[in-house]
Design goal:
Helices cover 38% and strands 15% of the residues. It contains 10 helices and 11 strands.
């Protein structure tokens, strides 16, 4: 169980050792099945982890494949036919492939649950239990998370044997480089205050969190009307639209990104000066 705050390098903490282990193993001949499975809660995180793994594995002959919904099945079926070493998957689409028989997890030696607390919070537990039935009993299981509440720890023990826990910082501490400000404001004036703050800090990138998909869309439109170009990202948008909005934000093309908690964990956006919770999150 590895616990550390977002931004401290958890991906590298599991990616580098598992790539080193794979590099030392004899690669199976012909069609080979995944030997490492990384489970992650959101598609954006699956893309980011895949990019990290591919960068770290640049000089290794290993195939790292992402697997998530919202995109066509055929390229994923082709990838399984070519052979996969490391599979980075969201639970829903992985179960689709397991049900179809197009993916077999019988060779998995290392299983990683990234943002484990978030996955168990978001109702993925039944899916994870189904996936666990397809992986061998003899394996290494790694859970990485910003926090390990007692409830999450109890669940972890269901599919781990005497795990060691490494906690980098005290539970639920806030990184010292973050300053918090609360603005008590009448509900009806929240949007006006947001526009004022965004207009005042008009050169900086800002991530604004809303509670609902509909609310995020509406807020992005209202910011546009106020002369503040903004993009929305949430679960109702197509995967291509979500990735495009995220890429434009990361590259600095878009200054304001309005998001539901689909973007709340693990996304690596360097030098982000301001995050605003327009609504309090559900969890």
């Amino acid at each position: 169980l590895g616990g550390a705050q977002t931004g401290t390098g958890k991906t590298a903490a599991f990616a580098l050792p598992l790539l080193q282990k794979l590099a030392a193993m004899q690669k199976p001949e012909g069609l080979h099945r995944p030997r490492v499975l990384v489970l992650t809660p959101t598609r954006e995180l699956a893309v980011q982890i895949t990019d990290n793994l591919r960068a770290y594995a640049k000089y290794l002959r290993l195939n790292v494949t992402p697997l998530f919904g919202g995109v066509g099945m055929q390229p994923q079926l082709d990838a399984f036919r070519r052979g996969v070493d490391v599979l980075v998957a969201c639970p829903g689409r992985l179960i689709d492939h397991l049900d179809r028989g197009s993916c077999k997890l019988s060779d998995v030696q290392m299983l990683v649950l990234d943002e484990a607390d978030r996955m168990l919070d978001m109702g993925f537990l039944p899916s994870i239990k189904r996936i666990m039935k397809h992986v061998p009993q003899q394996r290494q299981t790694l859970l990485f998370s910003a926090t390990f509440e007692p409830r999450i720890k109890a669940l972890a023990l269901e599919f781990m044997r005497e795990p060691k826990q490494v906690q980098v910082a005290a539970q639920n501490t806030v990184i010292e480089t973050i300053r918090h400000h609360a603005h008590p404001v009448d509900g009806a004036k929240k949007r006006d205050l947001l526009i004022e703050i965004l207009a005042r800090r008009h050169t900086e990138q800002v991530l604004v969190f809303g509670k609902t998909k509909h609310g995020c869309n509406r807020l992005a439109e209202q910011l546009e009307t106020a002369g503040l170009p903004a993009l929305a990202i949430h679960g109702n948008k197509s995967q291509a639209a979500r990735q495009k909005a995220l890429n434009e934000f990361k590259s600095g093309k878009t200054r304001i990104l309005v998001a539901t908690d689909v973007a709340a964990r693990g996304l690596d956006i360097p030098d982000l000066p301001l995050v605003i919770n327009h609504d309090l999150p559900m969890v």
